[in-house]
């Protein structure tokens, strides 16, 4: 387990924190793929132990309510939930 | 963490069952069949993984007591239906959304933080005595649908929304 990478155009560091059971998370992943961006993603519900705790701490820094999907773009901008327009704006497409 | 992939058929069967139950109780499942079947498969995964069907769009702790409020249908469904036309994951939608009179938009999380939930539980478990003792029966409230009943113990299953006994709280 851990981060999976999806190849694409480099639009800065993009990390998608998702749940494997969440349909909105899958929609967000598909949106990033459709937009052709390079990104990494992780299914937090499949993590265990320290790895899960560490990852949740990272999510909390960007989204204090720790909800999914949380997409972090360029290290400081984050988008909470499936928001197509916001995502396109953030990626400049 | 092992992964479990319920079949499409299992998902569709449960979706049909939930759809029937929802309509009987005046609720509506999301009419987008692919979307709804995916969510229902998420419920099946969680049922297998945790032993209860917690919301597929929320991170469960694995502790039933801690996750009680997010077992589907969650404690927040009805408020979100009223305010946003859909529950948090959009498995359930309002009459207006079903009729196409209202568009779906992202539903913000209204579940309180773990700290806030602990505080609320503490406040509930220490009710003030007088009004309580004056009643011939305690009154129990279903956290899912708001059903109230006055009897010694809450029912095993809510007669309105079918939530299990542990979703009831002492109301009066």
Brief summary:
Chain A: It comes from Methanothrix harundinacea (strain 6Ac) (Methanosaeta harundinacea). Chain A has 93 residues and is of the alpha+beta class.
What can you see in these coordinates?
Chain A: Pfam families: Glutaredoxin. Chain A: Residues 14-76 form the Glutaredoxin domain. Chain A: InterPro entries: GLR_AS (IPR011767), Glutaredoxin (IPR002109), Thioredoxin-like_sf (IPR036249). Chain A: This is Glutaredoxin. Chain A: It comes from Methanothrix harundinacea (strain 6Ac) (Methanosaeta harundinacea). Chain A has 3 helices and 5 strands. Chain A is of the alpha+beta class and 93 residues long. Chain A has a 5-stranded mixed beta sheet with strand order 1-3-2-4-5, covered by helices on one side. The mean pLDDT of chain A is 95. The longest helix of chain A is centred in the middle third of the chain and has 14 residues, at 49-62. Chain A has helices spanning 23-34, 49-62, 84-91; strands at 4-6, 14-18, 39-43, 70-73, 77-80. In chain B, helix 1 packs across helix 2. Chain B contains 7 helices and 5 strands, in the order αβαααβαααβββ. The model of chain B has no long low-confidence stretch (mean pLDDT 91). Chain B is mainly alpha-helical and 172 residues long. In chain B, a hairpin with a 5-residue loop joins strand 3 and strand 4 (148-150). In chain B, strands 4-3-5 form a 3-stranded antiparallel beta sheet, with no helix packed on it. Chain B has a two-stranded antiparallel sheet with strand order 1-2.
């Amino acid at each position: 387990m851990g981060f999976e990478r999806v190849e694409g155009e480099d639009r800065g560091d993009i990390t998608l924190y998702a749940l494997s059971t969440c349909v909105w998370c899958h929609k967000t992943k598909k949106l990033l793929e459709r937009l052709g961006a390079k990104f990494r993603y992780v299914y937090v519900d499949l993590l265990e132990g320290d790895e899960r705790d560490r990852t949740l701490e990272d999510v909390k820094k960007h989204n204090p309510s720790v909800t999914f999907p949380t997409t972090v773009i360029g290290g400081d901008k984050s988008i909470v939930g499936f928001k197509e327009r916001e995502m396109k704006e953030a990626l400049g497409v | 963490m092992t992964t479990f992939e319920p079949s499409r058929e299992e998902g569709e069967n449960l979706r049909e069952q939930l759809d029937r139950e929802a309509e009987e109780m005046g609720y509506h499942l999301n009419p987008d069949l692919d979307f709804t079947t995916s969510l229902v498969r998420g419920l099946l995964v969680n049922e297998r993984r945790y032993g209860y069907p917690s919301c597929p769009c929320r991170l469960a702790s694995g502790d039933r007591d801690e996750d009680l409020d997010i077992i589907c249908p969650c404690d927040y469904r009805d408020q979100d239906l009223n305010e946003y036309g859909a529950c948090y994951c959009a498995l359930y939608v309002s009459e207006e959304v079903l009729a196409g009179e209202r568009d779906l938009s992202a539903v913000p999380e209204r579940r309180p933080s773990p700290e806030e939930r602990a505080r609320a539980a503490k406040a509930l478990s220490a009710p003030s005595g007088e009004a309580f003792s004056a009643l011939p029966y305690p009154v129990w409230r279903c956290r899912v649908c708001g059903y109230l009943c006055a009897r010694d113990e809450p029912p095993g299953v809510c007669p309105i929304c079918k939530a299990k006994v542990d979703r009831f709280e002492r109301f009066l």
